[in-house]
Amino acid sequence: MFQGGVAERAMNLYVDCFDDAEIQTITRYGSDQPAREGTVMQATFRIKDQEFMCIDSDISHGFDFTPSFSIYITCESLEEFDQLYNKLSEGGFTMMPPDNYGFSTKFAWLNDRFGVSWQLNVS
To answer: Can you tell me which residues the record assigns to a coiled coil (predicted)?
Structure first.
């Protein structure tokens, strides 16, 4: 659930980051509905073989995304890792910078500019 009408921008970033990704459906609020017209009432997108659903919320609430839930991506190569890290970390916050932490060749944990938490790994 995104606040501020940014769900579509977030989905566009995610599908741009991955070769095997697509926005599958988008249903938008209309002029006669209880949220800002054109924002995302419900949408689905796919990254690799995983499907995600998202919405925009016009209701102000005291919570947002937390790193207690992360999207975990196993990268096929160091090049893929670097590409994803560079795109997803831009404007975001890195909690664990790219490094070999002993359990993988390279790992990073970050929140993207929309607050969504990602763990990137190369075995």
So the answer is: none
- Is 65 part of a structural domain of the chain? no
Neighbours of 27 (CB within 10 A): 11
Q: Is the entire prediction scored with pTM above 0.90? A: yes
Distance in angstroms (rounded) separating the CA atoms of residues 42 and 89: 25
| Alpha carbon distance 121, 123 (integer Å) | 6
**62 within domain boundaries:** no
41: left (phi over 0), alpha (psi -120 to 50) or beta: alpha
How high is the mean pLDDT in each 10-residue block of the chain (123 residues)? 94 96 97 92 96 93 88 96 98 97 95 97 93
- The reply to whether 45 and 74 lie within a common domain is no
Three-class DSSP labels, 58-99: CCCCCCCCCCCCEEEEEECCHHHHHHHHHHHHCCCEEEEEEE
Integer CA distances (angstroms), 103 to 9, 99, 107, 108, 122, in order: 33, 10, 9, 12, 10
